[in-house]
Design brief:
The structure is a homodimer. By secondary structure, chain A is an alpha+beta fold. Chain A has helices at 75-87, 142-145, 152-166; strands at 5-11, 16-22, 25-30, 35-42, 46-54, 59-63, 66-68, 93-101, 110-119, 133-138. Chain A has one domain: Nucleoside Triphosphate Pyrophosphohydrolase (Alpha-Beta Complex). Chain A has a 4-stranded mixed beta sheet with strand order 7-4-9-8. Chain A has a 3-stranded antiparallel beta sheet with strand order 1-2-3, with no helix packed on it. Chain A is globular. In chain A, a hairpin with a 4-residue loop joins strand 5 and strand 6 (59-63). Chains A and B meet through strand 2, strand 3, strand 6, strand 8 and helix 3 of A and strand 2, strand 3, strand 6, strand 8 and helix 3 of B.
Chain lengths: 168, 168
């Protein structure tokens, strides 16, 4: 399923915008390489989040460790790289919890949410300009912490993880 | 919390793109007026979804009824308008399930997810160019249908609703 015509109408640093013609409809689409988020559980039964300034939201948000896929990078490789860079975690037992479109009305971002269990601690290597604070919550605290979350992938990821736990 | 400088670098039909300077950092942001999604439960205990072509996703997706806020429109008013237009539902008992940012790394879309219970059936009035098919699932089917969902707000909304039901 492909458009009849497609042209780039904005070239940005983080994303481009494409104008597509589908029959008599035009669609304006934010291009995106896809992204990942990780529910990382350590051997002490804690989940690690990152707290950072999100300029678009005009404040700090608590989110799952996450990031965009680099060119040609498989989502699982992105997930392991981001978890190491942002939180310093390596190893772990990995499961794909879900894949979804974040905002399919206007953006081509497909998000893959992974569970990484029994991850091992190491040193984080945040990107220059990333100012991340790590926040750790015990698994049995997650239900009560949900109201502090204001990020879609994080709310979906935590709820998918709690459902996954109940189903085992 | 506001940027030091801000300028529009792309003016589109559906959205603009702003380049903001925050100290020595630049942020490229998709502007968005905010949006709503509705978990609508009828008196027969069924939840109604809309199935539509999402060009950005190159296929059809099953989603909660949803839409963007118009200028000056309160989110609850948007939710009631969209539910009437897309599904024909009126009335109902309304609860805010959650508000969150859909993609806070690059977009200013804040999403409000409502629960509307005991809605009343009427005639839908879809916007011109909207080709919506209504899909109805019983509440007790939702858990098993989750794997058919590939839209972030819909996955989050369904899981928040199931959690809300369990807590009553």
């Amino acid at each position: 399923m492909q458009p009849d015509e497609s042209r780039t109408v904005y070239r940005g640093t983080l994303f481009d915008v494409t104008l597509e013609r589908w029959g008599d409809r035009e669609r304006e689409i934010v291009e995106h390489p896809g992204a990942v988020a990780v529910v990382a559980v350590d051997r002490e039964g804690r989940v690690t989040f990152v707290r950072q300034l999100r300029e678009a939201a005009r404040g700090h948000l608590i989110e799952l460790p996450a990031g965009a896929c680099e060119a040609g990078e498989e989502p699982l490789a992105t997930a392991k790289r981001e978890l190491r860079e942002e939180c310093g975690f390596t190893g772990g037992d990995w499961t794909l919890l879900a894949s979804f479109w974040t905002t399919p009305g206007f953006c081509r971002e497909r998000m893959h949410v992974y569970l990484a269990e029994a991850v091992e601690e190491g040193d984080a290597e945040p990107d220059e300009g990333e100012d991340l604070e790590l926040v750790r919550w015990r698994v049995d605290e997650l239900e009560s912490k949900l109201s502090e979350l204001e990020d879609a992938k994080t709310i979906a990821g935590v709820l998918l993880y709690l459902r996954h736990r109940r189903s085992r």
